[in-house]
Amino acid sequence: MRAAGLIRATAVLWLFTVGAAQMADGQAASSDDSLEEWIGQMIMVGFRGTELGAGHPFLEDLRGLHLGGVILFDYDVSTQSDVRNIVSAQQVRSLIQQLQSASRRPLLVAVDQEGGRVRRLKEKHGFPAAPSQEELGRTDREEATREAARRTGNLLADLGINTNFAPVLDLALNPLNPVIASLGRSYGREAERAASHARWTMEEFHRAGILSAVKHFPGHGSSREDSHLGLPDVTDLWEEEELEPFRRVIREGLPDMVMTAHLYNSAWDALHPSTLSKAVVTGMLRGELGFQGVVVSDDLQMGAVDQNYTLRERIRLAVEAGVDILLFANNLRYDPRIAEKAHRTLKELVDSGVLTPERIRESYDRIVALKLKFEVR
What is the set of active-site residues? Predict the structure, then answer.
């Protein structure tokens, strides 16, 4: 049985008895234990280590904080080390089994495996090559894109990875864009082509039992700056056409998740960047485009938001905006206590009345429904 199958088998009991049953009877917030679990499921974090022995602090966080997900990397940015979480296929399988066994609830285990330059599973660690989205868009052949997605989906499933932060729906409107076009991450300039290739990709991911997250809403392809380093202002650059790929795939019900971009556009929100904007997440994404699934933030430690907002402000504004999963990749700047800090901050925001238990439960229910969707495939 593949690793993903083992995870399904061990996860079903919690998902149905705790998740589905609570959603079915409309159970309201009733205890700190429930609230702390709901909060924990909203947090996805990165960590250091290729293996985690019994008693490892991160395993204690998984259990004690009820964390909902983890993200894996092959490279540690803050130390510039080639050793982070990924060394070989067998090592990754073993690491994921350690993580899932340590967690009381099934974890979302995520990577960025887009293809081309942005992929965490590389040849140097024994994994197969994968074409970039730019190559696939330029070739523009359905079977080529499906075959690439099929290989990626099957690889992830075999390792026990159940979530891929792909495909990218950003249009290559600015050929000099440092984080999209320059890295070959876009299917091209045409919305229809991007939506078609994304559709074929997600259909193949789903056949392999892999959840997908389209990104970066509402469109990062026209920006000039790198949001890892600072906040890009796209007020005079962004085009309405950048919404169209998202609109098309959401209309078809294909995305399991949508990942937000850290962008500023005064026409969207004069005060806050898109990830932290209710006008963007709730207004544009959920209202105008009709997406009712899980919204995951881009890394909340990126310069675009980290330089301008405190941790408390980032968390509060993201949740108020409508974000369900708060992603702390913990790679650009490593903080071994980030999961604890994020959990405590969310709890304090609820205890002080800034956020309501009902708002936390809303995200928790979406996350449980997402995990059920994966587990019953």
Answer: 228, 298
